Amino acid sequence: MDVPRHTGRRLAETEDQLITRMLGHPTFPAPLRGLWYSPALPGPPVPQPSRFRDATNTGLARLGITETDLAEYTGPGGYDRGGPYLIEDQVIGVDIRLYNSVQMTIRRCKILAHIDVDSVDAALTLEDSHVDAGPWSNAAIGFQNLTILRCNVQGGITAVNGSYNVVVQDSYLHGQVISAAGSDHAGGFLCSGGGNIELRGSTIWCSVQDNGHGGGPSNNLNLFGDLGPLRNIRVKGCYFPATAGGYSVSLGHNPGKPYGDNPAGIVFVDNVLGRDLQTGRGGAYGTVTSFLASEPSNLYAGNVWADNGQPVPVNT
C-alpha cells in the first residue's frame, strides 16, 4: 500500500521501502520524522474491529482444535542439551525452560504454564498455540530469541517480555493476572532493554483493572529503558484496545530511567488504537507517550483511531 506524504501526494515506493530509506538517511526531510502522515483525500476507512486478532482467530481456535483433540504431554520441563526439539498437538502442564543452545518448536499445543528462554543462545518458535500461564509473577512467555506466530497468549503479569530477537505476529496478547492485594503492574508486551524486535498484525491489550492496593495495568505496550538501551523495535499493523492503564503505548523515551534518554530505531506505523469515548484517550492519562521525535531513526506514522480512522497524535 502506498503511503501519502504530509502534502497528501502519493509516493511511488511502498511504505516498507520508505521506512528502510528513511532509517538509512538521517537527513531525510524532518516533516516525515516523529509525525503521522496526513491522510490523502478522502479520509481513511474506519478500521473494522472484526479484522483484529482475538481468541477466535488465533491459537487452537483458529484451526478449530480443542483440548480433546490433543495428547497429554509427558516430557520434561527443562531442556539444556540436544535437539532441535519439536512438540506438536499436546496439552502441556509444566513450565517449559530452554537453556544453553537448545532450539525448540512448539506447534498446535495448549500450554497451561509459562515458557522461558533463559539463554542467549536458546531459541523458541511457537505456532498456532494457546498459552495460559495463569497467576504468575513474570511473563507468560520470555525472554529472547522468540518467534510467536498466530498464538493466543494470556496469564502472568505480562503476556510477552522480550529483550532481543523477538517476533510476535498475528497473535493475541491479553488476559494478564495480578494478585488481589499486591502491587504488580501488568502489561501486554514489555521490553526493558534490548532490540531487534518486531510486533506485527497482533492485538496487544493490558486487560486487567486496578486492584485497589497499588496493583493494576501499566500500558498495552511498554518500552522502558530500565535494563539496557532500546534499539530497533518495529511495531506495525497492530491493534491496541483502550486500557485502564496510564497510556495505551509507551515508546521508550523516559530520561529518568537508566537507559531512557535515547531510544533509537523505534518505528510505530499503521497501528489502530482504541479509546474511551468519554475521555477520548486510550489510557487514563493519554494514548501514546514517550516517543522521541528528535531521533532521526525513530518513526511514528499512519496510526489511527479505531472508531473513526483519523490520525492519533503522538505524545498526548
TrEMBL record:
It comes from the Bacteria. This is Right handed beta helix region. InterPro entries: Pectin_lyase_fold/virulence.
